[in-house]
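User: Here's a structure from my thesis project, written as structure tokens. My advisor, Dr. K., wants to see whether a designed sequence matches the one we expressed. Can you design one independently, without my sequence as a hint?
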């Protein structure tokens, strides 16, 4: 897994200290967070944390932004859900460097740019994902990076949980299990990382479709990491099988993976066209 990269900082954090600040509990969410943190620290390795500005689109209740803020980066988190932002502001462990506002990632205009823009697991929830990509592009510095993640809409877990269960209404019933039962079964205290419990998937991406979405929005693909195979559930009692799946996922073509972490930048060609 990801270790701490060398970042110029007055206070050196121990590897994985950032995990104390996330609400993520299951093994897949932690793997995704580790890859996001790795991308951020790799970009920031020759700079002081205070020199780095981060925007997170669709921050939910801070499962990603709180850990990122623990490194001392300047961060702004936005989410369309008022209750999620209320939760972030109430629990924000780094109010001096991180702030949270209610806004729609499809229409956001902050009139400032950031070194890093993170959009993790939100494009599949948006009616107009191309508008989110446009928002990312507009708010990203010319030499900055974007980190975008999404599930493969055609992997087994998405077909069962985000399509069949959602269509039959089982999805909501399953998530209404008593917390003790749900936690014992899955290893996670909650299935949601937003206060908006009815925010289901409305987009189902293939690898090529998602890659084309980013490129049409003026982005250049820097790297792609496969998350898993999308076959084994990310429940605590299946964690050993899930770890095997993680290892196997690194060897398969991207189109067979269960989800991806994209590192992107603004395309030089697109910048010229949009001037």
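Assistant: Designed independently from the structure alone:
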């Amino acid at each position: 897994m990801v270790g701490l990269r060398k970042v110029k900082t007055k206070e050196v954090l121990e590897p994985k200290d950032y995990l104390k600040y996330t609400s993520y509990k299951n093994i897949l969410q932690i793997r995704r967070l580790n890859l996001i943190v790795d991308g951020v620290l790799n970009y920031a390795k020759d700079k002081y944390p205070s020199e780095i500005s981060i925007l997170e689109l669709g921050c939910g209740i801070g499962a990603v932004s709180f850990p990122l803020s623990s490194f001392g980066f300047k961060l702004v988190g936005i989410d369309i859900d008022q209750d999620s932002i209320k939760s972030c502001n109430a629990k924000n462990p780094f109010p001096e460097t991180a702030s949270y506002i209610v806004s729609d990632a499809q229409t956001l205009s902050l009139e400032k740019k950031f070194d890093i823009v993170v959009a993790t697991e939100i494009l599949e929830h948006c009616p107009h994902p191309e508008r989110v990509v446009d928002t990312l592009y507009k708010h990203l510095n010319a030499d900055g990076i974007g980190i975008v993640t999404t599930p493969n809409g055609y992997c087994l877990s998405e077909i069962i949980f985000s399509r069949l269960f959602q269509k039959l209404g089982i999805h909501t019933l399953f998530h209404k299990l008593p917390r003790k039962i749900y936690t014992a079964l899955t290893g996670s205290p909650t299935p949601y990382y937003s206060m908006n419990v009815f925010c289901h998937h409305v987009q189902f991406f293939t690898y090529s479709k998602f890659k084309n979405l980013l490129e049409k929005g003026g982005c250049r693909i820097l790297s792609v990491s496969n998350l898993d195979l999308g076959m084994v559930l990310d429940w605590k009692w299946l964690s050993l099988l899930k770890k095997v799946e993680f290892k196997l996922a690194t060897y398969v073509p991207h189109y067979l993976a269960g989800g991806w972490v994209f590192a992107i930048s603004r395309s030089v060609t697109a910048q010229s066209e949009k001037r």
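When you compare it with your expressed construct, this may help: The radius of gyration is 18 Å.
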